[in-house]
């Protein structure tokens, strides 16, 4: 989580951490934020490494993307009406963006790519489980307006 492939990789991860992390930390507090970030990032890295290893896929995992995707789902739960401008121009509500990223990661998981899509997918999954179990919030209830 603390190494990156290149400066661009580092900048995009840290920009995402700044944008989503500030708002999330403000709502859940610094201690919960740090626990969430480190736990989701670590678990998503371990789980994706195991999956790639078991399937014989040779990858090197670097970056904080699992933790960042975890932050994205928590942001979407805490701020379900927030609109994110993709590429600075396309407005997308946070929960829809999470769904889009989920399906991209799911269908790209084992593609021949330098991107570890499974780490992204596991970041969303472990983030979802953390929110459900520790924070006792059902993301689907929030997004459907039933909470």
Structural overview:
By secondary structure, the protein is mainly α. The chain has a two-stranded antiparallel sheet with strand order 1-2. The chain starts with 6 loop residues before the first helix and ends with a helix. It has helices at 7-28, 30-54, 65-78, 94-108, 117-133, 139-144, and strands spanning 83-86, 90-93. α1 runs parallel beside α3, α2 packs across α3 (65-78) and α3 (65-78) packs across α5.
Spell out the key features of this protein.
mainly alpha; 147 residues; two-stranded antiparallel ribbon; 5% strand
Rg, please? 15 Å
Distinct helical segment count: 6
Distance between the termini: 33 Å
SSE order, one letter for each helix or strand: HHHEEHHH
Low-confidence stretches: none
Average predicted confidence as pLDDT: 88
Helix content: 55-70%
Present the secondary structure layout.
Elements lengths: L6 H22 L1 H25 L10 H14 L4 E4 L3 E4 H15 L8 H17 L5 H6 L3
């Amino acid at each position: 989580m603390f190494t990156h492939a290149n400066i661009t990789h580092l900048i995009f991860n840290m920009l995402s951490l700044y944008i989503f992390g500030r708002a999330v930390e403000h709502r859940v507090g610094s201690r919960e934020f740090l626990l969430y970030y480190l736990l989701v990032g670590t678990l998503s890295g371990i789980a994706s490494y195991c999956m790639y290893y078991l399937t014989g896929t040779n990858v090197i995992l670097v970056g904080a993307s699992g933790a960042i995707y975890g932050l994205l789902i928590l942001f979407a739960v805490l701020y379900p009406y927030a609109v994110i401008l993709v590429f600075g121009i396309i407005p997308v509500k946070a929960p829809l963006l999470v769904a889009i990223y989920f399906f991209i990661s799911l269908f790209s998981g084992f593609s021949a790519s330098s991107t570890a899509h499974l780490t992204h997918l596991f970041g969303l999954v472990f983030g979802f489980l953390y929110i459900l179990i520790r924070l006792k919030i059902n993301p689907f209830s929030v997004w459907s307006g039933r909470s």
